[in-house]
Amino acid sequence: MKRRLGLVCAPVLIASACRNLPGPFAPPVQRQPLEDFRPYRMSAIVDMSDEDARTHFVQDLTSNATPTWRWTGKRPTVRVRMRSAENRSVENIKFTIDFSIAGVMLRNTGPLTVSFLVNDVVLDRVRYERDGVQHFEKAVPPGLVTAGQDTTVGAEIDKTWVPPEGGPQLGIILMRIGLTQ
Amino acid sequence: MRQAAAALFGAGFTVAACYAAGSLLIDQLRAMLRREERIPLAFILGAACLHLAIFAILAVHIAYWPVLAVVLAGTIAAALMTGAWRGAHTESGKPVPPLSKSLRMVFGWCAGVFAVVYLVNAWAPEASPDGAGYHLGLVARELRVHGFEPITNDMYAMLSQGVEMLFVPAFAIGRHSAAALVHFAFTVALALAMLAYGRRIGKPWAGAAGALLTFASPVVGADGSAAYIDVATAAIVFGVFYWTEIWDDHQHELRLLIPVGLLAGYAYAAKYTAFPIAIYALGFVAWRSKRLRPFSKSLRPVLLVAGCALIMAGPWIARNWIWYQNPVAPFANSIFRNPFVHVMFERDYSESLRSYEMPSLRPLALEATIHGAYIQGIIGPAFLLLPVALAALRFQAGRRLLLAGALVASTYFANIGARFLIPSLPFFSLAIGLAFAQSATILMALMLLHAAASWPPVLNRYVNPNCWRLVRFPYKAALRIVPQDEFLRTNAHGYAAALMVDAKVPGSEPVFSMDGILDSYTRHPILVYYHSASNETLADTINMGWNEVSQPAVASVFQFPERKARRLRVVQTAQAVYPHQWNVYELRFFYHGTELTRKLDWRLQAWPNPWEVQLAFDNSLATRWRSGEIASPGMYLDVDFGREESVDEVRLVASSDFELTRLQLESIDPSGGSEKIADNPATVNQPVPQGIRRMATYELYARGIRYLMVSDKSNGAEDFAEDPEVWGLKLIGHTEGERLYQTIW
Fold it and tell me: Considering just the CA atoms, what is the radius of gyration of chain B in Å?
């Protein structure tokens, strides 16, 4: 009986005795402080390649698009929100936009003037005489953006164009737009 | 079209080899089987044998497609040449009452139509999350290196892969769809075996009804037509049961227990949760042999079953014990402690699998049969009749079916996913069929109603939209008229991300991911944040960058009269509640305000989680040692200075949830005795370094990982997306809601 009990218990004891614990360790390589850092910069940018880009659209963003850009109408506008957090400020906010002007449109309409807006306040107006990719960036006046609240950012194109095959009125080809710090 | 043909050929070749291997063994055993039961039973038994051969091929690292093809072709040739293929010892069997014409028609049409739907879905490009994720991800990885390799950063690699072994040759020839088609073959084999079982017990109508209840069950359709393993497991489990019945019918011929044992072990090798069928087999054989005398004679059948089971399960147990220090990895980590899976993770994971975030388990019966909102699928409303199956207790077969079914289902509450019900479905389905054994009309109505309720367009009308089910009849994709790439981009979430990784990441560099993607479509190892202890630790470091609660914001300071000590230990004395762990970012020692410089002859220990103790001594406020389980009295961090040092202050940096623990400082003498030096340390605030995000990312880089993928839906995703530069990252790709970053170093 004792022998049988021993046979039954042995595997359990062997298994529970198998503590594969390591010996003591020496201290590892000591990390040195990183020096090339800067404070975190908040941003709230809608990239047309974002999966959720559509949820930010307010007006005048057409369905004529690829995964990375989208034709706009006369006054494309999106809604963004700067996240609020205790240890972050919403100072030094910049409006930023990347877009393209189509050559075929420019040939039909002549030079375009684009106004850039934050919460319907015009930040600047720029005249574009050449086609191609454009980048615009400008500081937003203090107080115009409140952390944790929706902000509308957009552009207004002075002339629009309808392609010969028809369709909606087209403005610029938008890649990304929003606010950054 | 070539891809479609390759898939069909790869699957057909593998299935034929399984059947051939099973036929050869059945022939050797001189097992007398009816033709209708021989085909499915030979396939299932042969799958067990072939799995072992492929395990051996992978173990010796010769998994090249010519080797696999020779093994498969050799097995088929041997079966053809010996006559085993045709079944030289096939028994005609005693006459069985035929199925009525109407019942035959109902079963034939219903099963036939569902079979076509399943076949087309299996043949189409593999888009299932787990199938194209880890089941085939591991197969693809094994084929890339032509064998097994210890994968310590993926808990799925630690699971036994009994069915995946059959996916290996199929995948080598016909890629993903071939593997799914092999699983589809198991689905058909299970239905045929159930049908044959009904005939064996003289109740063919019950067998037909039971087979259709299981075969047409929505979760069986979704699972059985993808590269999953649950329906295969069900077929293996039912095979064990079937062979015990054959043994019982054949005057307990000892040799007929060999398939019982082999399949019982193979069930474990296929899926851990199927182990209760081995208990059933051992118990049944012991019970039926109890009258044999002397006692040793009654023990022989049981030992034979156990021995054969060990042949199949043993290699997996041994592999896990050798590689992962845990025979049942990734479970039981508190017994078999190892550096690869945290005890806490196992608890978190088990908790989630026990509830699937269902607010209450009270509506589980309706959830599993009608809704499928949480548990990923339904077995079908017909199974609400399960209590009626108790009426089958009036038959001997019913009692055995219900006992086996109850045992197999006993592990269900450890994981309430609908597909975890699949292995017990054959038993309960047949028991329902037996319950209505006297009425062919009721059985026919039941079959028709179940088929109608499981038909995809009907299913769409009542299940929750999140319910996992077949929703397409992708015949154009199956035939590759619609290109595979196009189909997958539209229908397989995680496919585009896998392609992005291949396009942007060079060589076979690993990618750390905060989300699972379809691993089998990329050549890169994807280190998913929760798949191992090391991944969890890295994820903890990275998440600390944006999550203020877990940042190193407080310090516990012991100050005491100057003393000399050779070895000091900080002991945790409080009992915390789930899920609070003890964590320490840095443990530092001071004398007159100057920190003792850490020397290489210091010796560091921790309990529990001793493997990660260095994280508390690496001079980085981005990494922390965590206990890996709920903080409890007796946990400690221990430092042996190697010689006596003067100390008057000890400082532990931790996160702000530190107050859940209570600490005391002890001096340990050479004999192991301890002396309390101080307790109740003062808590002071600790400034969090401004570059904490970049420090976190640097830890990724320091471990040889230069790529990080973050899903837009992951917690903290916007923090990375807003300012990757401050993290030391640059965005190199963005698709399907997944952003791929590269470290700047």
Answer: 29
Question: What are the backbone dihedrals phi and psi of residue A173, each rounded to the nearest 5 degrees, phi first?
Answer: -105, 110
Query: By CA distance, what is B335's nearest residue in A?
Result: A16
User: What's the CA gap between B655 and B624, in Å, rounded?
Assistant: 9
Is A21 inside any structural domain?
no
Q: Is A20's CB within 8 Å of B336's CB?
A: yes
Instruction: For residue A102, give its domain range.
Output: 57-180
The pLDDT of B703-732, averaged and rounded, is 92
Question: Could you report the predicted ipTM of this complex, rounded to two decimals?
Answer: 0.85
Among the listed residues B558, B541, B625, the one whose alpha carbon sits nearest the alpha carbon of residue B586:
B625
Q: Rounded CA gap, B123 and B454, in Å?
A: 20
More confident call, A101 vs B718: A101
pLDDT tens, position by position, A101-124? 999 999 999 999 999 999 999 999
Q: Cβ–Cβ of B617/A28 closer than 8 Å?
A: yes
Cβ-Cβ contacts under 8 Å, B735 against chain A: 49, 67
A7 occurs within a structural domain:
no
Q: Residue B226's Cα: distance from chain center in Å?
A: 15
Contact flag A34-B695 (C-beta cutoff 8 Å)? yes
The closest CB to that of A30, out of B327, B611, B619, belongs to B619
Domain count, chain A: 1
Query: A147 at the B interface (CB within 8 A)?
Result: no
Among B45-59, B241-255, B305-319, which is the least confidently predicted range? B241-255
**Whether the bond into B608 is cis, omega within 30 of 0:** yes
CA distance B609 to chain A (A): 9
**In this complex, how many residue pairs, one in chain A and one in chain B, have their CB atoms less than 8 Å apart?**
99
CB of A22 within 8 Å of a chain B CB? The answer is yes
Give domain status of residue A40, yes or no.
no
Q: Give residue-wise pLDDT tens across range B371-421.
A: 999 999 999 999 999 999 999 999 999 999 999 999 999 999 999 999 999
CATH number, domain containing residue A136: 2.60.120.260
The pTM is what?
Answer: 0.88
Closest-CA residue of chain A to B618: A30
* Pairwise CB contact (< 8 Å): A41 & B604: no
Residue B33 sits at φ, ψ, to 5 deg, of: -125, 150
What's the pLDDT tens digit per position in B132-147? Answer: 999 999 999 999 999 9
Amino acid type, B59: A
A51 touches chain B (CB under 8 A): yes
Contacts with B369 (C-beta within 8 Å, 6 or more apart), sequence order: B378, B379, B380, B381, B382, B383, B384
In a domain, A69, yes or no: yes
Contact A44 B722 (CB under 8 A): yes
DSSP state letter for A69: -
B726:A39 CB<8 A: yes
A91 CB within 8 Å of a chain B CB: no
Question: What is the per-residue pLDDT across B187-228, written as a single tens digit (0 to 9) for each?
Answer: 999 999 999 999 999 999 999 999 999 999 999 999 999 999
Q: Which of A15, A19, A83 lies closest to B718 in CB terms?
A: A83
Give the model confidence (pLDDT) of B642-667 as tens digits: 999 999 999 999 998 766 789 999 99
Chain B: residue nearest A26 by CA?
A: B603
Number of CB atoms found within 10 A of residue B547's CB: 14
**Whole-angstrom distance, CA of residue B602 vs CA of residue B311:** 47
Using a CB-CB distance cutoff of 8 angstroms, which residues of chain B are in contact with residue A87? 548
Residue A88's pLDDT is 56
SS3 labels along B23-47: HHHHHHHCCCEEHHHHHHHHHHHHH
Tell me whether residue B68 is exposed, middle or buried, using C-beta atoms within 10 angstroms of its C-beta: 0 to 12, 13 to 18, 19 or more.
buried
